[in-house]
Amino acid sequence: MPIATVNPANGETVKTYQAMGEEEVERRLQLAEATFRTYRTTGFDERAALLRRAADLLDEDQQDIARVITTEMGKPVKQARAEAAKCAKAMRWYADHAAELLADEEPADADVRDSGATRALVRYRPVGPVLAVMPWNFPLWQVIRFAAPALMAGNVGLLKHASNVPQTALYLEDLFHRAGFTEGTFQTLLIGSGEVDEILRDERVKAATLTGSEPAGRAVAATAGEMIKKTVLELGGSDPFIVMPSADLDRAAEVAVNARCQNAGQSCIAAKRFIVHTDVYDAFAERFTEGMKALVLGDPMDEDTEIGPLSSERGRAELEELVDDAVRGGASVLCGGERPDRPGWYYPPTVLAGIDREMRIHREEAFGPVATLYRAGDLDEAVLIANDTLFGLSSNVWTRDESEVDRFVRGLEAGGVYFNGMTASHPAFPFGGVKRSGYGRELSGHGIREFCNITTVWHGA
């Protein structure tokens, strides 16, 4: 895949970039290793000041970088601005909390004495250069939720971004440099995916984080396992959105539309499978379908647009294949289902009902504004349908019956359970999945400690 900005709204190539050669990649690896030796000795106050400065610059750049994001991957520009604002918020959150999250821990006095020590503590130390392999769908946020905690922990970053968002990738390197971080603290590698394996094998790279597809995750995990290197993987998702009889149906349907179609449905944590109790199935399906049909599809630079194009022609073709397969298998199309007659890689909000386990869309992640409806007879059946997937990123449950809450928390196989609201990442809460959605956690204290050497410091008499 060429490293290029191709506008999804019209298919036009805006700018093409030459991949970095071996000499330039080697220079950057050397720089990362050398910079880490000094950056690791900086204190939290110094790192926090730099990160706050980066947040301030991002706020200043918000309008311009939002237009770059929209041009590169098709996100409606108002959503792109919101993404930039979220990134600045996360940087400030880690600047404010990193020292506390990584403070030395003192074991209980009784345990210290029992170990034969006069004193002991646990210290969190940075591991070194971390390779981040990032996707295009949230081209700022996916990177910042790695970079903010990693830099505050004293690590340095090497970014291999998706090949269709090179301008955003280069902007991120420039942002940190303008904020005052030393040149080698955060670097973008303009390389193809085929170069990732060799870089991960380099002994100077100490760990890796990847957000992306299951095949990409398998490849990175296999190499990292061979090289005995720590990885965090956030892969695909097929999140359930469960609606029970006690739910506020108007609110649930309204949120369901946004949960499925934000970013044109191109989100790992987007709700994709809507599992509705039979007592309220018809009422919810009507409200949800009307909400999906009402969304405004159009030019992503238009402030009124709610659904922009998909990021690539290939992505739209893959989504169409899933819909066509379901229809051939007997699924009903309640709305959408046909590409609009216009330039660009648009696909309309679509609702499918009558899904069965043999359809590909039941087993595979639909990365676009396509929702599937399921009917459940009771809570237990809803949980069974929800767990009938290889993924386990997050989940949404709508109920006002408190007796059901703990049963869902215990029963659902997911990294998060969100009640009466849609899944959304926040710097204070751990984010990640189970099963084929990956392992490890980003964000919160759990995320910042993923790339730390947890060191026991023990003093004898």
TrEMBL record:
Concerning InterPro entries, the annotation shows: Ald_DH/histidinol_DH, Ald_DH_C, Ald_DH_N, Aldehyde_DH_dom, ALDH_GabD1-like, GABD/Sad-like
Pfam families in the cross-refs? Aldedh
User: For this UniProt entry, which residues form the secretion signal?
Assistant: none
- Highest rank taxon of the organism: Bacteria
> Which keywords does this chain's UniProt record carry?
NADP, Oxidoreductase
Transmembrane feature ranges? none
- The UniProt record lists the Aldehyde dehydrogenase domain at 3-457
Q: Which family does it belong to?
A: Belongs to the aldehyde dehydrogenase family.
Q: What is this protein called?
A: NADP-dependent succinic semialdehyde dehydrogenase
